[in-house]
Structures are given as structure tokens and as C-alpha cells.
Amino acid sequence: ANYGFCEIASQEETERALQLDGMLVLGVPVSIKRPNDAVSPLGMIGGVPVGMQMPGQGGMLALPSAQVSATSPVIRIDEILKVDDKTTDDDYNDVKEDMAEGCGAHGKLVSVAIVKPHHAQGNATLKPGDVFLQCSTTDDATKIMRAMGHRKYDGRQIHMTSFEESKFMSEIKPLF
User: Fold this and answer.
1) Which tens digits make up the pLDDT trace of 8-65?
2) Are strands 160-163 and 60-63 parallel, antiparallel or unpaired?
3) pTM check: above 0.70
4) pLDDT one-digit tens code per residue, 65-117
5) CA geometry: angle at 13 spanning 10 and 18, to 5°?
6) φ, ψ for residue 117, nearest 5 deg
7) Burial of 119 from C-beta contacts in 10 A (0-12 / 13-18 / 19+)
8) Using CB atoms within 10 A as the burial measure, which of 23, 56, 132, 138 is most buried?
9) What is the DSSP string of 105-161?
10) Cα-Cα end-to-end distance for the chain
11) What whole-number distance in Å separates Cα of residue 153 and Cα of residue 149?
12) From the DSSP assignment, how many helices (H) and strands (E) are in the chain?
């Protein structure tokens, strides 16, 4: 929903933060406002008169969420498939096809690889069910992460991170 909330430690810091409204972050203007119910016309915050807050409690600000930016053309998706002894090759292939189709609609993909148990043996950084997307460019990776990172797959939140390209090329890609 492109918004978030932040609690500020003091009224003074809240006022300073409100002055940042409209600042550009990654080329997008940030809107910094108080929630509609934070300050009532009677000078109350959260039902407590201003100046009567508990120590350490400040005002609250509504902030839009920051846009994700990839740092590499390779994306790692953590455990998109929950692997167990009943997982079949068709299950792995279905996930690869879904990722190629869904993610490929938002950026150009070079390859899609899904980690199977034999890939993860002896490699502590790999987990069965992880997916690696090799994109044409870092910009394509950013587009995919922004479009797909908030979605769910098989009822679970997708967790996407950039993965170091040189490490992918030397350690991961040769496994596939």
C-alpha cells in the first residue's frame, strides 16, 4: 500500500521530521504527514493532551515505503518452494515456469534456477526451494523486485534480495 508509520521520540524531532515533507528519495517525493487521528483539534495525541505524553513517547508520522533498488542483475528468492520428501520434479518445474512468466513480465530474464536438495548439499548458503533469477541488467532486476517483492506465492510472502553477480557466476550457476 506504499505507506508506513514511524514513531518519533519527541515533539521537537517530530516537527523537524515534518519539515522533510516532499524530499526526494530515489527520485520519488516522500510525503511526511501526521496520521489523521494523531492530533485532534483539542491538542490531543492518541487521546492524551500534548505535553502529557509518557517519557519516550513522541508523535507518529505516516511515511511512504521506500522503493526497492537492486544492486546486481541477480535476484535471490528465499524458499519460494517448501521442499519435503514428497516434492517432485514437476513441482520444481512449475515454480521455474511461474517465476519465468510472472517475473519475466516485469524485466528481461536470462535464466531461472531453482535449488534442489542435491544442489544444497555441502553449500551452507543454499536452501532447497530457493530461486535465482539472472536478469539482463540491474535495472531489470529492480523492476522485477519492485513489481513482485510485495506479492505472495503459494500463500507465503515472497522475499527477494539482490545477489552478488560474481558469486552467482562462480558458485551458483555452474550447479545448474
Assistant:
1) 877 788 888 887 777 777 767 777 887 765 544 444 444 444 444 444 444 455 444 4
2) unpaired
3) no
4) 456 789 999 999 999 999 999 999 999 999 999 999 999 999 999 999 999 99
5) 125
6) -55, -40
7) middle
8) 132
9) TTS-EEEEEE--HHHHTT-TT--TT-EEEEESSHHHHHHHHHHHTT-EETTEE--EE
10) 37
11) 10
12) 5, 12
Question: What cell numbers appear for 124 in the block?
Answer: 551452507
Radius of gyration of the chain (CA): 22
Phi, psi of 4 (to 5 degrees): -155, 170
Here the contacts of 80-87 (C-beta below 8 Å, separation 24 or greater) are 80/114, 80/129, 80/130, 80/131, 80/153, 80/154, 80/156, 80/158, 81/114, 81/128, 81/129, 81/131, 81/154, 82/129, 82/154, 82/156, 83/116, 83/117, 83/128, 83/129, 87/128
- Residues with Cβ within 8 Å of 167's Cβ and at least 6 positions away in sequence, in order, are none
Q: C-alpha cell of 6?
A: 514511524
